[in-house]
Design goal:
Oligomer: single chain
Helix content: over 70%
CATH superfamily: Tetracycline Repressor, domain 2
Largest sheet: none
Strand content: under 5%
């Protein structure tokens, strides 16, 4: 049987897809416990009975939203891998940062929900636990921090998390950080990329050189 999420992804213009997109935005802004189905219905511009008809309970919609976000994130990482394959390490990291930052600023609910799942109570609630893929091994392999995706050291995993969390922090924290540095959106995004490259390219280059 085709799931509501599969139906929504197959038909982006459908009501299911519209509700899912609205749910991603609202859950990203308020988390699971801070969101009501009425808030999502208002975001989409529908009545709450229509939302429940297409998606059932809030828990079901949250699970679909998180799964949908991680499917999109996984596809984005695949797209990045295709572009950077075979390039020198510094260029791979620079291009990866550019592509991921652009993607995440276009879809800020991704970083918001990732950070909420890391640090919020939702992650520890067994009633709304969502089984999601982990991309750490693939990123570590792409950065030459391991031989393959099956042999990833704890250190390599932590280094990948440091890179990804620093990106998510700048996106999820934009409303906090950008007024502090007094920059417009485009200038802020450009500086985020510059800062990430300044920190991570030398660090990963030194790490790989030490292992060679």
């Amino acid at each position: 049987m085709t799931s509501p999420l599969e139906k929504a992804r197959k038909d982006p213009e459908s009501m299911k897809a519209r509700i899912l997109a609205g749910a991603r935005r609202v859950f990203g802004a308020h988390g699971f416990h801070g969101t009501t189905t009425r808030m999502i219905a208002n975001e989409v511009g529908i009545d709450i009975s229509t939302l429940h008809y297409h998606w059932g309970e809030k828990k079901d919609l949250y699970q679909a939203a998180v799964t949908d976000i991680y499917k999109d994130l996984g596809q984005q990482l695949i797209d990045v891998e295709k572009v950077i394959h075979g390039k020198p390490l510094a260029e791979r990291i620079a291009v990866s940062i550019d592509m991921m930052v652009d993607y995440l600023f276009e879809h800020p609910e991704v970083s918001n929900l990732v950070m909420l799942r890391y640090f919020g109570q939702t992650r520890h609630d067994p009633l709304i636990d969502v089984k999601i893929p982990e991309f750490t091994a693939d990123i570590a392999r792409s950065m030459e921090l391991c031989r393959d995706g099956k042999h990833v050291s704890a250190r390599a995993m932590m280094e990948v998390w440091t890179l990804m969390n620093s990106i998510h922090n700048f996106i999820a924290g934009e409303s906090f950080f950008r007024p502090m540095v007094k920059l417009g959106e485009k200038q802020y995004i450009a500086l985020v990329k510059e800062t990430l490259k300044f920190i991570h390219i030398p660090a990963f280059a030194q790490r790989v050189n030490a292992n060679s």
